[in-house]
Amino acid sequence: MCSEEFKLPKRDFFDDMDWINENRVKLRSEYQGRWIAVSNKKVLATSKKIDEVEEQVALKTKKQIDQIPIVYIEDPHCIYMERKKR
After folding, report:
1. DSSP letter string, the chain
2. Dihedral, CA atoms, 42, 34, 71, 20, nearest 10 degrees?
3. How would you write the pLDDT of the chain (86 residues) with one tens digit per residue?
4. d(Cα 70, Cα 53) in Å, to the nearest integer?
5. How far apart are CA 84 and CA 8, in angstroms?
6. Phi, psi dihedrals of residue 54, rounded to the nearest 5°
7. ∠ CA 35-2-57 to the nearest 5 degrees?
8. How far apart are CA 79 and CA 82, in angstroms?
9. Rounded-to-integer distance, Cα 45 and Cα 37, Å
């Protein structure tokens, strides 16, 4: 049995994810190469470091961090590769 309880995000989490997907082109032009947090269909926080975004979210809202979508806005000119450990 799992020791952690899993909570499904609330409906507004999914609404914000839909908004991110619908506005990805605009978001890419403004936030490419950065992490963003979105709440109520607005960018709440942004940084190149995810931990800084989480800190900003904690200061700006009473919502739990797992109730706010935090996504990385890719740079379409970059190639992301996984390095294998030797």
Report:
1. --SSPP-PPPHHHHHHHHHHHHTHHHHHHHHTTEEEEEETTEEEEEESSHHHHHHHHHHH-SS-GGGS-EEEE--TT----PPPP-
2. 40
3. 556 666 667 889 999 999 999 999 999 999 999 999 999 999 999 999 999 999 999 999 988 888 999 999 988 777 767 777 76
4. 8
5. 33
6. -60, -40
7. 25
8. 10
9. 5
Residue 74 in tokens: 């890719």
CB 36 within 8 A of CB 70: yes
Q: Say which residue the tokens 């190469």 belong to.
A: 33
Domain ranges of the chain: 32-74
